[in-house]
Specification:
- The structure is a single chain.
- The protein is an alpha/beta fold.
- The chain folds into 4 domains: 181 residues, Rossmann fold (3-Layer(aba) Sandwich); 201 residues, Orthogonal Bundle (N-(1-d-carboxylethyl)-l-norvaline Dehydrogenase, domain 2), CATH 1.10.1040.50; 170 residues, 2-enoyl-CoA Hydratase, Chain A, domain 1 (Alpha-Beta Complex), CATH 3.90.226; 138 residues, no CATH class.
- It is 44% helix and 15% strand.
- The chain is built from 29 helices and 23 strands.
- It has an 8-stranded mixed β-sheet, sandwiched between helices. The protein has a 7-stranded mixed β-sheet with strand order 15-16-17-18-19-20-21.
- α18 packs parallel to α20 and α19 runs antiparallel to α29.
- The longest helix is centred in the middle third of the chain and has 24 residues.
Length: 759
């Protein structure tokens, strides 16, 4: 049976289209062996060409579906005439074929004839009745059959709706849920077998209704998106931009399918898309995939359609002073304020949108889900809403109709029940917010805090913008280390946010460089280096729970930890050259130390330094955690959490294991440097890179500067250097570069635009 322990196994995915390919890729990412099947080709020499074409598409998909290109080797293609015997050994068979009941029923009959007695079978349908689909199958089959509705693309959208039926064995369903969450990395919501389940039904109705309200009230597409995006705690793609991303033809197909499937829904007329939408579709303006929809880009200029005349005009930048002021308030506060403004033009629109959402979830919620939390989680996990519609209504009105209490005492409305039931907390999904809500803060400071995670582990939380490292953050780390050495068995450094740390506070460095205050920069660097060294040599193990941006000083902080637990989506590296600088927090020292430890002493000049040199000299960052492992930024002694929401729990578990194993900090190490002997090799690498890319003269100078640090004072020749010497060389080099106009221009560009300057 499928469960959390099945970290390897065999799955058969039937249907090599976009969704089937995405599911196959997600299984391959998890380390599973995958058989991807589709219909047989009449060409006897290429019977599995349809599935092979699907594999080719998923390999070329952008954004990538596979963490590493070589993971495609875990996928074997076949066809449903010659290769159905493969089902006999499969742990899981998932069908993702066309949304036609006759096709799916015929396929499930074939699946039953060939699959093993323990095989779990799921359908990825998004709208067809699972009861009808499985009605002609045996009791044994139906006990192992359920719905598994992934959103596309599965790698990036973590929601998975699981739909057990009355005949589904509860043990099978529970095992599949654990498997989906721990192995595939999804967050599961249990839904009922109704058209569209929770996700499609609520989303398409809300999207279509919001479009209708916007048009009825005479709002432009820009105004509607401005008022239904971040203001409501949602992505900036909001409404019309979201439709462009999905595809207007897809939106129309989904709304049409729901319209046909819900004859008794009193709100179904809202699923009739406005004539303006159909007009764009008739003109082939389907959104991003066709180059134009509600928006169109021409070079750097973005146009928006004027719905009154159907023509494009330059997009307007909407700024409403009252709304801009509201954006600075917490989401709950601004929702309450907006609820009382029904006079202004924007207030009437927002309240009409939220009133319609309230009315629909009140009607449809009990039909599609067991409780308010399930609906809210679907919208949070599937559509990146900050809060779901039921919680939104409580905050908006100030009436705790759907939720009461906080922390462990929080209770939720269960449909059909007069009493609210306790929300079961899963310790594997621990968050710092939850811990703080129950008073687990050890100490608080402006730039960070120490939070008790329980079981003898505490977590250091950074609280700066993008968790950038600052003197205040360094002070928090040092204080946390003192407390941990006295009161805790281990430490984690982590966050609830999407990013571990984007690096050092660049503005502090730029301001000091412009003022020519070199001693201030030296003081900052010594502060960072000594803090990270304290992490490395701490008597209690420190584990970094990294995710998202883990760059510059953030990466250096993690490199000094006893272990790293990584979330799957990880942009990690030491890209200081993009700011005209070199790593100054011990990053070069740590990469050289790793190369020294791994070197067998036989190969001349330690070729193991070439990879870290490329990383630093050319500012290479990882595309994901598996890529970071391949690049040498992560090590096999760490771990990758398939489910990013379990990252803090996994890091805590790793920290406890280190402590229980009698952890001792590493001994002071010597770093082997080779002086001028490695300079020709470094120059060859630089010349090779310069011939391949947009490499400026200043890029060449920066790369050569990195090479000098790797050489370790070239004039002194091959030798063992103490860590302090390499750290001093990092500081000296960074300060020297900070004085150059080109570096200051790069720092300024990054701060102002967020993009690197090539000068």
């Amino acid at each position: 049976m499928l469960n959390e322990g099945r970290t390897t196994g065999t799955a058969v995915v039937i249907g090599a289209g976009t969704m089937g390919g995405g599911i196959a890729a997600q299984l391959a990412n998890a380390g599973w062996s995958v058989k991807l099947l589709d219909i047989a080709s009449p060409d006897p020499s290429a019977r599995s060409s349809v599935a092979s074409a699907g594999l080719d598409r998923l390999q070329k998909a952008r954004p990538p579906l596979l963490f590493l290109p070589e993971f495609a080797d875990r996928i074997e293609t076949g066809n449903t005439e010659d290769n159905l015997p493969w089902l006999r050994e499969a742990d899981w068979v998932v069908e993702a074929v066309a949304e036609r009941m006759d096709v799916k029923k015929a396929l499930l009959a074939q699946v039953e004839a060939h699959c093993g007695s323990q095989t779990v079978i799921t359908s990825n349908t998004s709208g067809l009745s699972l009861h009808e689909m499985s009605s002609e199958r045996s009791e044994s089959f139906r006990s192992r059959f359920l719905g598994s509705h992934f959103l596309n693309p599965p790698r990036y959208l973590k929601l998975l709706e699981v739909i057990p039926l009355e005949k589904t064995d509860p043990v099978v369903a529970a095992g599949f849920v654990r498997f989906a969450e721990q192995v595939l990395g999804h967050r599961v919501v249990i839904a009922k077998d109704t058209p569209g389940f929770i996700s499609t039904r609520i989303w398409i109705m809300h999207l279509a209704t919001t479009m209708k309200i916007a048009l009825d009230q005479g709002l432009t597409v820009e105004e509607a998106d401005y008022l239904t995006g971040s203001l409501l705690g949602r992505p900036n793609s909001a409404t019309f931009r979201m439709a462009d991303l999905v595809g207007l033809d897809i939106v129309a197909a989904i709304s049409g399918n729901q319209l046909a499937a819900l004859p008794e829904d009193p709100f179904r007329d809202n699923l009739q898309l406005p004539a303006e939408v159909h007009s764009l579709i008739d003109q082939g303006r389907l959104g991003d995939k066709s180059g134009s929809g509600f928006y169109r880009r021409e070079g750097k200029v973005i146009f928006a359609v004027d719905l009154t005349i159907g023509e494009y005009r330059p997009r307007s930048e909407i700024r409403i002073p009252e709304v801009e002021a509201l954006q600075k308030r917490p989401l709950g506060e601004r929702l309450a304020i907006m609820n009382n403004d029904r006079q202004s033009r924007w207030g009437r629109f927002v309240n009409a949108v939220l009133d319609s959402l309230r009315d629909y979830v009140e009607y449809a919620g009990p039909l599609v889900a067991m409780d308010a939390l399930s609906v809210d989680n679907v919208m949070r996990w599937g559509f990146q809403w900050g809060i779901g519609p039921f919680e939104l209504e409580d905050l908006r009105t100030g009436q705790p109709r759907n939720y009461i209490g906080f922390g462990a005492e929080r209770r939720v409305r269960v449909f059909g029940s007069a009493a609210m039931l306790a929300i079961e907390t899963d310790r594997e999904y621990v968050t710092l917010a939850d811990r703080k809500a129950v008073g687990a803060s050890v100490f608080e400071a402006p730039d960070g805090a120490l939070i008790d995670l329980g079981d003898g582990v505490a977590c250091i939380e950074f609280r700066t913008k993008l968790n950038t490292v600052s003197p205040g953050v360094c002070e928090v780390i040092r204080r946390a280390l003192e407390v941990a050495n006295r009161d805790f068995a281990a430490l984690v450094i982590g966050t609830d946010g999407p990013h571990f740390s984007a690096g050092y506070n660049l503005k502090l460095l730029l301001d000091a460089a412009v003022a020519k205050d070199w001693s201030a920069i030296d003081t900052m660097l010594i502060d960072v280096q000594s803090t990270f060294q304290a992490i490395k040599y701490s008597p209690v193990p420190v584990v970094a729970a990294v995710r998202g941006y883990t760059l510059g000083a953030g990466c250096e902080c993690a490199l000094h930890c006893a272990a790293i637990q990584a979330g799957p989506e990880l942009t990690m590296g030491l890209p200081e050259v993009s700011a005209g600088l070199v790593p100054g927090g011990g990053g070069i020292k740590e990469m050289l130390a790793r190369a020294t430890r791994a070197w067998d002493g036989q190969a001349p000049g330690n070729p193991l330094i070439e990879s870290p040199f490329r990383l630093i000299a050319f500012g290479i960052t990882s595309a994901n955690a598996h890529d970071a492992l391949k690049l040498g930024l992560l090590r096999e002694t760490g771990g990758i959490s398939h489910n990013a929401d379990r990252l803090l729990f996994d890091a805590k578990t790793r920290a406890l294991a280190l402590a229980a194993g009698g952890y001792r900090p590493p001994e002071q190490c010597k770093i082997t440097v080779f002086g001028a002997a490695i300079q020709p090799r470094m120059e060859g690498i630089i010349a090779q890179e310069a011939g391949r890319s947009n490499f400026s003269d200043y890029d060449r100078l920066l790369a050569r500067t990195v090479a000098l640090i790797f050489a370790g004072e070239p004039a002194r020749g091959p030798r063992e250097a103490p860590e302090e010497e390499v750290l001093a060389l990092e500081r000296e080099t960074l300060i020297h570069l900070a004085g150059k106009p080109q570096t200051q221009a790069r720092m300024k560009a990054l701060l102002e635009t967020g993009k690197p300057l090539k000068n």
